[in-house]
Write a structure and sequence with these properties.
The protein is built from 12 helices and 53 strands. The protein is α+β, with helices and mostly antiparallel strands.
Length: about 850
């Protein structure tokens, strides 16, 4: 029944009819209490007769009414008068995004502005556990003053979906009954058209389809029938934009494609991260990306000039950084460069006085401590061979002694303390990655590696948080009541989250997941955490997040940033970093080394037994978080893409490799290097793979898995059936903490090598019989490869910037030096993160990792 002008529903007086739709009649009305114009929707009578659905609708409306965000339609009230149920919301004047696009192409600026506002509205809703499920241009409204409003946020479909199987609520999503499809064809996610359970990533997919249409003027998925459209959503990629549209901002297509990934885990994992990626594009980072690409281009050259060019590139980076800082941000902040030597700086801190203290490695030498006066920029070594972790308010240093880089981002050492003015060094705890003093300088919180896991402990020994990945950048709040840290779910991978935990162990995730994050500090008031992190398809960014999870961008630059510290007066200490990863292959007899580097950030995963192929990951691609996987011949020829995932091993014949997908670690792929079909093996949900290697017969894998957060364990997995078999009941024997199975299965298929919690090596028969300890090995050494047969192994160890490889007899522990090598360029050398040698000892490969760091002081950053 239509309502006439002047009719009252509660305090709302009908002014005029606006229209009608599936939700019922919509009216313009006046709120007589507040004298404001509102939109009033009268709900269908069929709805009112269902008490359960009505109760749920009222509850959800109350939840949605808490969504106080400028980009979401505000819900004011729900009511009931004489059997008439109604919903009251803000009154909007303007047109839908569908009408806006029909009127003509959107400018690049408008596309980015609208997209950013939609993403922010989605983020606000998702933070409250609300998903839309019917996001489309018709449900996005553009007001007359060009503001974006998301309409019908979960109400329409949930309120009026009929049928006995529908049990989904806005706030607590439940699985949709099989065959139940909610949403609009053309904008639904693959999991939505399949009738599978949905989460916020479904909205991210729908957003990608809308963004594609905003840019191109064409539907992302469109067929002659609904069936054809659904098939396109499930199986087809959208056509490329950059070749056909002049309206595509650099980077926008990468964002669209990541939103439209068929698998949810490959999309942006939150609308907040999506908003940040869009903000980086709309905020002027495009030029920065171009500059960065130009500066980094020489890193892929493979001739004798590369080493000279490395120094030139580093200088050019610094000069470009200074120019960028002074030109682009003079009105916001000023920057002072305070270090000038080519070195790698892991950690730097302000002292209570006018100094900056930091640990640095120069020309491949061990880390040592330096101090620089902020006024004169004079630098002095403190004659301490250690790396810095933190400086207390009483000028005590927390140090890392004999720090080794188990992987590039996870250096482990012995925690010690020493007064900055000179005095005895006191050792405290082994296997510490990071530490931070309490505000009064009396105690330390630590990131402690125990039995292959990392623990946040405060005081040392009391566990506040534990992960099978690792923890970095531990920082006390100014009040000392909370500890912030960066949580990295995968060991050795710097992707992750910003977390905070109180002293009782109550943890909260504030931000993430980021594709890379390093550097964290509290602001002096303790109201925000600043950190440096990147998401796919954007330039490096310094960010801020408050304790409610509200995030913003503080500062963007054309190079990699690493936030080091924030002083009490607001000064910021940060470093710029130029990363150069170099893959080298050499012949043992001649000593000739060949630089085979083909990417900016490669990872060497394995070398085939005949020494002809390398398995390589590339982290360069801006639209993928699962790592591109390549095989490359050791003669330096062009790498060949074979799939995705973190590579682990070659088969004995070199025809297959294994790889773990970072976003789905309970799966491992067996990928052909040539002809063949990829096969996927699984472990149960809640468990995940750490490593894998082949048996000589190619029918089984030796795998390292973590089951339900317990200790890593080795098992045999049948490739044909996926069946798992334990190889030892002795829980002392566990794979090493990284999960790398070196040297894998012995050539006769009878043995593998495991370590215990003390780092001792054991020769473990694969038939399950008792293992025995291997003598002649040192704790800092790594078993690298079986030598020819099964009675000897090659063992490698790092000696400063050099690598030593020994031949060890397993029967008696006798050893002899096989070869010693180092890269020609040791400037800013961080580590050799991996070393591989062929079973005949004739060829070896290594990955040398260099990070050129430059420290800056920044004032007036807000």
């Amino acid at each position: 029944m239509a309502l006439t002008s002047g009719t009252r529903l509660g305090p709302y007086e009908i002014v005029a009819s606006v229209g009608a739709g599936g939700m019922g009649e919509v009216y313009r009305a006046r709120d007589t209490r507040l004298d404001r114009t509102v939109a009033l929707k009268v709900l269908p009578s069929a709805f009112s007769s269902d008490s359960d659905r009505l109760q749920r609708f009222q509850y959800e409306a109350r939840i949605l009414s808490t969504l106080n965000h400028s980009n979401v339609l505000a819900i004011h009230d729900v009511g009931d008068q004489n059997g008439i149920r109604y919903l009251v919301s803000e009154f909007l004047e303007g047109e839908t995004l569908r009408d806006k696009m029909a009127a003509g192409p959107l400018s690049r600026r408008r596309v980015l502005e609208y997209a950013l506002e939609i993403a922010r509205g989605l983020a606000a809703a998702h933070d409250k556990g609300i998903i839309h499920r019917d996001l489309k241009p018709d449900n996005i409204f553009i007001t007359r003053d060009d503001r974006v409003k998301i309409l019908d946020f979960g109400l329409a479909k949930r309120a009026f979906e009929s049928g006995p199987n529908e049990t989904i609520t806005v706030t607590t999503p439940a699985p949709t009954a099989p065959g139940t499809v909610l949403g609009t064809v053309g904008y639904m996610s693959p999991e939505q058209v399949r009738g599978q359970p949905l989460d916020h990533r479904s909205d991210v997919f729908s957003f990608g389809a809308i963004l594609y249409e905003m840019v191109s003027g064409k539907r992302a998925f469109h067929g002659d029938s609904g069936v054809e459209t659904v098939n396109a959503i499930l199986k087809e990629d959208v056509p490329e934009l950059t070749a056909s549209s002049t309206n595509v901002a650099p980077g926008i297509e990468r964002i669209i494609r990541r939103c439209l990934e068929k698998q949810p885990e490959r999309r942006f994992q939150s609308a907040s991260d999506l908003a940040f990626a869009l903000e980086a594009l709309s905020g002027g980072s495009t030029g920065s990306q171009v500059v960065s690409a130009a500066l980094q281009a020489p890193s892929a050259r493979k001739n004798w000039l590369a080493w000279i060019l490395a120094g030139i590139v580093a200088l050019a980076l610094i000069a470009a950084g200074l120019y960028f800082f002074s030109l682009q941000h003079a009105s916001q902040a000023n920057f002072t460069q305070i270090t000038f030597r080519s070195s790698y700086i892991r950690t730097a801190r302000f002292t209570p006085g006018r100094y900056v203290v930091y640990g640095a490695t120069i020309n491949g030498e061990p880390m040592q401590i330096f101090s620089t006066h902020m006024d004169t920029l004079e630098t002095q070594p403190l004659n301490i061979k250690a790396d810095l972790l933190d400086i207390s308010s009483t000028s005590d240093m927390a140090l890392s002694l004999d720090r080794t880089f188990e992987t590039t981002w996870v250096p482990i050492g012995r925690l010690a303390r020493a007064p900055m003015g000179g005095g005895a060094t006191r050792e405290l705890v082994d296997n510490v990655n990071d530490a931070d003093w309490t505000p009064d300088g009396s105690q330390l919180a630590i990131s402690h590696q125990v039995n292959g896991k990392f623990r946040l402990e405060f005081p040392p020994g009391k566990v506040l948080f534990e992960t099978s990945g690792y923890i970095s950048d531990v920082r006390f709040s100014p009040k000392g009541d909370q500890i912030a840290f960066l949580e990295h779910p995968m060991f050795g991978d710097d992707r992750g989250y910003v977390d905070v935990v109180d002293l009782q162990g109550n943890r909260k995730v504030l931000a993430g997941e980021y594709s890379s994050e390093q550097g964290l500090a509290w602001t002096p008031k303790g109201d925000e955490l600043w950190y440096t992190a990147t998401t796919i398809a954007e330039a490096p960014v310094m960010r801020a997040v408050d304790l409610h999870g509200r995030r913003r961008v503080v500062f963007a630059a054309p190079m990699r940033l690493h936030l080091q510290d924030i002083a009490k007066d607001g000064k910021v200490l940060l470093s710029t970093e130029l990363l150069r990863w170099q893959i080298g292959v050499a012949d043992v007899k001649t000593g000739h080394q060949l630089d085979t580097t083909a990417f900016q950030w490669p990872m060497l995963d394995a070398i085939s037994r005949d020494g002809s192929l390398m398995l390589i990951n590339s982290f360069d691609t801006g639209s993928n978080t699962n790592y591109r996987l390549y095989v490359q011949r050791t003669d330096g020829s062009t790498p060949v893409l074979i799939g995705e995932g973190a590579g682990t091993a070659f088969s004995f014949d070199g025809k297959w490799v294994t790889a773990i997908t970072p976003t789905k670690t309970n799966q491992i792929q067996i990928i052909p290097t040539g002809v063949g079909e990829t096969q996927t093996l699984h472990v149960a949900s809640g468990s995940h793979y750490l490593g894998a290697s082949f048996f000589p017969d190619g029918k089984r894998l030796l795998v390292v898995i973590i089951v339900d957060g317990q200790q890593p364990q080795a098992a045999i997995q049948e490739i044909a059936t996926g069946a798992l078999h334990a190889i030892s009941s002795d829980k002392r024997f566990v794979p090493n903490s990284v999960g790398i199975l070196k040297p894998g299965v012995s050539p006769d298929g009878k043995f593998c090598i495991l370590t215990d919690a003390s780092g001792r090596y054991w020769l473990q028969p694969l038939d399950g019989s008792n293992g025995r300890e291997i003598t002649g090995l040192k704790p800092e050494e790594e078993v690298t490869e079986w030598r020819s047969g099964s009675g000897h192994v090659f063992v490698s160890r790092f000696v400063r910037s050099d690598v030593e490889v020994y031949d060890v007899d397993l029967s008696n522990g006798q050893r002899k030096l096989w070869t010693r090598f180092s890269p020609a360029d040791k400037t800013a050398l961080v580590s050799h993160s991996t070393v591989f040698i062929t079973p005949d000892g004739g060829r070896y490969g290594y990955l040398a990792q260099r990070i050129y760091s430059t420290l800056f002081l920044a004032n007036e950053l807000r």
